[in-house]
Amino acid sequence: QSGYRRQPLWAGVLPAAPSGSTSLGSSATAALQPRLRYTHASIGETAMAVVQHDTEDRQPENGFVSPETTSPGLLTRIDGSVLPFLGGFGKYQKQLIVLTCIPALFIGFSQYSDYFLLAQPNNTCIQPLANLTNQSPGHSSLLGGPKNMSARPVHIYANRSSGTHNDTTGMQCKCSEWTFELHTGLVQNVVTKWSLVCDAAWKVHIAKFSLLVGSIFGYLVLGILADWFGRHKVLIMSVLFMLVFGLTVAFSVNVPMFSTLRFFEGFCLAGIVLSLYVLRIELCLPAWRFSMTMVASFVVLGGQLLMPGVAYLCRDWQVLQAVIICPLLLMLSYIWIFPESLRWLLATQQYCRSKWIMGQIAKINGVNMELDPDNILPELQRALQKKPKKTCIVKMVGTRNLWKNIVVLCVNSLTGYGIHHCFARSMMDPEAQEITMFHNFYVDYYTMAGIAVASCMALCPAVGLMGRRGGLLMFMIITALASLLQLGLLNLLWKYSDSSGTLNKNFSIAFSIIGMFSSHAVSNLSIFFCAEITPTVIRGGGVGLVLASAGFGMLTAPIMELHNQKGYFLHHIIFACCTLICIICILLLPETRYQPLPETLADGESYTRQPLLPPRKPGEQHLLLARSENSRDYTRVHDTAAATLFHSMKSMVCK
């Protein structure tokens, strides 16, 4: 009885009995109808079971593994349901945003400290080696003093002491006592303390390597830890070790100790930068994300602008290092006043901690939690028994779209920071490789800072009008044009123009400024874009990857300096080609403006590229897409099987 259908299944399906059929045929047919109904129901259920089995157990195509999908609930709709229920971008969020921006000032001090700690001074030999004192040709040049005019921003210029390979330079470096003159506001820095000139100049580049390499490893390692243990724990751990290693740097007794401690300082600095950046993004609603990120960027640039004044007041590099690090002691209070990211807790199903934080947010924002039209609290109460579920960045490899988006932004960040050094290197005087266009440390330094400030100011309206993808594409096109024109047009002017010297110099300065302006914008926007595309469960690892790529781009500057700028032209050509590749790859990215942040891998996978231009006829595009397997029409399976079986049984009865 349970296998039969109560409603008639043959209505409108079975044809009417022919007029010549006998009563026996009619009665036999009538007798067979219950059994046929049972068979029809069984066939339909079997067919649907096969379809369901085929849908669930289908093997992944092309070796990709589909991300885990969960039923969408209110707790996963953080931007659309949870944060608006807690007051949106209220007083609580604004207070925490301020707490993430204050340390950005001291982060700016640390990031630009190499300009002063490792600046090359003017040097004069006052005590040549004994075996050279009787050589009259060299004696006058030694006592006259080889002047080193390389007291400049360290990532722009080469070390002059090793820039000229001739006999005179070799004789000049054979000196036992030097006198130094710094133009950075300091009386003594690392170079003057241990006489890192001439044959010892390579140690300066190693010191620069140590901070950058430490930052690269910090972004990669601590980004993964931020996804696994939380942003707050990584922040506090990084601050504690930053205080230890940063203050110890000031008491270094030799260059190897200084370089080693700077590696760990860069490692911890990367953890602070990464965790604050991610926390800031996850606090904001879609309309506030970019503006709050740019506010923090301006605070970092404020640290860059104030750094010369701080160096002038400190006068000694050890005091300067201590002054840079000590304000981070205030961040120890973040252990109590700064909570874990609510978005990360909800995305990893840590609902017990989420419930307490939601109560604090509602209290500070003045929200009455009893008014809950969406029933968020009952759903949270039902989900309290769920176990935490954390994800590693490695699972990104099994996705189709997410890994592509992150890789494209990593290449953009690498290219932006790498080619920035190429433009900065072009600011050097082509006739005197050691002297800059401005011939003054402070003018050079503030020119670089002014270009960075102008770039960030231009980002705001550009992204507001064209979106993330449009703004990134525009600035990358400007970078590519400036690079190609500088490489090609200047050579033509030098070859065919009579006044090639002055014209070449002016065009070189113009293209360099434009290139640095646009490449700085590309780098900043690539990092922010990655933070919006990467899901919350792996956002730390994703942002860590793109920041590490930026570190590799910055690492090309000391590498070129270490080799005395050999291969500089090829270096510029390679990055110019990368800009052309990036222009094509940017078209593959989705647009994230005003979109909620993805929370799970499935959310990140759903971010796909939208067409730049809308289709002429919206209905035509659907015809070009293959229908998904889940949308196949199986409604006529029952009718076809039942009609075939009925006609077969009817013919047997008639016979």
Structural summary, described in words:
It is found in: Membrane. One of its GO terms (cellular component) is membrane. Keywords: Membrane, Transmembrane, Transmembrane helix. GO terms for molecular function: transmembrane transporter activity. The chain is an all-alpha fold and 655 residues long. Among the domains are: 223 residues, MFS general substrate transporter like domains (Growth Hormone, Chain: A), CATH 1.20.1250; 218 residues, Growth Hormone, Chain: A. Helices cover 64% and strands 2% of the residues. It is built from 24 helices and two strands. It has a two-stranded antiparallel sheet. The N terminus is likely disordered.
Brief sketch in words of this structure:
Helices cover 64% and strands 2% of the residues.
What structural category do the secondary elements indicate? mainly alpha
Task: Using the coordinates above, name the CATH class of the domain at 75-124 and 176-348.
Answer: Mainly Alpha
Can you tell me the residue ranges where pLDDT is under 50 for at least 5 consecutive residues?
1-71, 132-171, 430-435, 618-637
CATH superfamily of the domain at 75-124 and 176-348: MFS general substrate transporter like domains
Strand order of the largest sheet: 1-2
Largest sheet: 2 strands, antiparallel
SS summary, helix count: 24
Instruction: Using the alpha-carbon principal axes, give the shape.
Output: globular
Cα Rg? 34 Å
The helix content, as a percent range, equals 55-70%
InterPro entries: MFS_sugar_transport-like (IPR005828), MFS_trans_sf (IPR036259)
GO molecular function, one term: transmembrane transporter activity
Subcellular location: Membrane
Transmembrane segments: 209-229, 235-256, 263-281, 287-307, 319-337, 445-465, 472-494, 506-530, 537-557, 569-589
